[in-house]
Structure formats: structure tokens, C-alpha cells
Design goal:
By secondary structure, the chain is an alpha/beta fold. It folds into two domains: 4-79, Beta-grasp domain (Ubiquitin-like (UB roll)), CATH 3.10.20; 84-159, DNA polymerase, domain 1 (Orthogonal Bundle). It contains six helices and seven strands; from the N terminus they run E-E-H-E-E-E-H-H-H-E-H-H-E. The chain has helices at 26-32, 77-82, 86-97, 107-119, 126-132, 144-156; strands spanning 4-11, 14-21, 51-54, 57-60, 73-75, 124-125, 161-162. The strands form two sheets. It has a five-stranded mixed beta sheet. Strands 6-7 form a two-stranded parallel ribbon. A hairpin with a 2-residue loop joins strand 1 (4-11) and strand 2. Helix 3 crosses helix 4 and helix 3 (86-97) runs antiparallel to helix 6. It binds FE2/S2 (inorganic) cluster (2 copies). The site of one FE2/S2 (inorganic) cluster has 10 residues, from loops. One FE2/S2 (inorganic) cluster binds at residues 40-43, 45-50, 60, 62.
């Protein structure tokens, strides 16, 4: 039988402790505890839909061990939805307004990497945005509308605008 461990961390601003088998991924720990806003796609680190921020840095939760978030702060798309971060709310509004969502399966992960981009001072620059979201796959939209949404958000929060395609 596998060794059980206790993992204590902050999830969307609230302290939580979960008991998991030592080899459990962060993705499995979150979803097994009803955090279904974190999507499970490939479970091999390829698609990015499971992305969360750990102490502000994006992690593909399927290839992150649960034990790695001990004492850390984990933010999921639910934390953005119910939090008071203006850029996070604008990002979600603009994903809707720009038509950046079709089936929506990629959306939570793309919101998280876009948030990381903006948190790190990202500007309205389509090339830079493309690079920032490059680890996340979308099978529906062709990416242009996703990039438009991040670009629009960067402009709305007063970031410099750089024209390129
Ligand atoms: S489910 Fe984690 S990268 Fe695809
Ligand atoms: S909207 Fe369907 S995978 Fe991106």
C-alpha cells in the first residue's frame, strides 16, 4: 500500500489540508477534492488545460506532485472568478467578448497563463502573448481570438501597446 502524506497549502486564499498517496499529482489531489475547475486533458504535460499558479508561477498540475505545493499558495481559475483582482475579471470578460471560447475545455488553463503574463507586467504585444500561451493547446479557436482577449485586457489595464501581428 502506498505511503499517505498530508499536504497543507493555500487554495484560492483559503488554507486547506488534503491526505493523499505520496505519488499523487497536484491535478489528482485537486480534482479528488472537488476542484473541478482544474481540467484534466492529456495528463502528460502536453495540453496545458490543467494549469494553475503556484506562488504566482504557472504549473501544469498533472506533472506537478501534490507534495510540491506544501506551504505554498495555489490559484485556480475559480480563485480568479471569485477573487477581487481587476485584471483577472477583465481577462474573463474579454475571453467572452472576443469569442475566445468555443468548447471551453482549454479555457481555465489559458486564463491562468494569461494571468501570469499580465502579473509579470505583460504588455499589449501579440508576439509576446503568443509566446506566453504557447504551452497551452486549443483545438477550436485557432488562437487569434485568445490572443485578442489578452491584448485587449493588457490595453484596458493601461499597459503599453506594441503593434505587430
Ligand atoms: S492535463 Fe496537464 S498538460 Fe494536459
Ligand atoms: S475552446 Fe475548445 S479547446 Fe479551446
Amino acid at each position: 500500500m502506498s505511503e499517505m502524506i498530508k499536504v497543507s497549502f493555500t487554495l484560492n486564499g483559503k488554507p486547506v489540508t488534503y491526505n493523499v498517496a505520496a505519488q499523487t499529482s497536484l491535478l489528482r489531489m485537486l480534482r479528488d477534492n472537488y476542484n473541478y475547475d482544474v481540467k484534466c486533458g492529456c495528463e502528460e504535460g502536453d495540453c496545458g488545460t490543467c494549469t494553475v499558479l503556484v506562488d504566482g508561477v504557472s504549473h501544469k498540475s498533472c506533472i506537478t506532485l501534490a507534495a510540491q505545493v506544501e506551504g505554498k499558495s495555489v490559484l485556480t481559475v475559480r480563485g480568479i472568478t471569485y477573487g477581487d483582482d481587476e485584471a483577472g475579471h477583465l481577462l474573463q470578460k474579454n475571453f467572452v467578448e472576443c469569442g475566445s471560447i468555443q468548447c471551453g475545455f482549454c479555457t481555465p488553463g489559458l486564463i491562468m497563463v494569461s494571468k501570469e503574463y499580465l502579473n509579470n507586467g505583460g504588455i499589449a504585444d501579440r508576439s509576446a502573448i503568443r509566446r506566453a500561451i504557447s504551452g497551452n493547446l486549443c483545438r477550436c479557436t485557432g488562437y487569434k481570438k485568445i490572443i485578442d482577449a489578452v491584448y485587449k485586457t493588457a490595453k484596458e489595464i493601461g499597459r503599453e501597446e506594441r503593434q505587430n501581428v
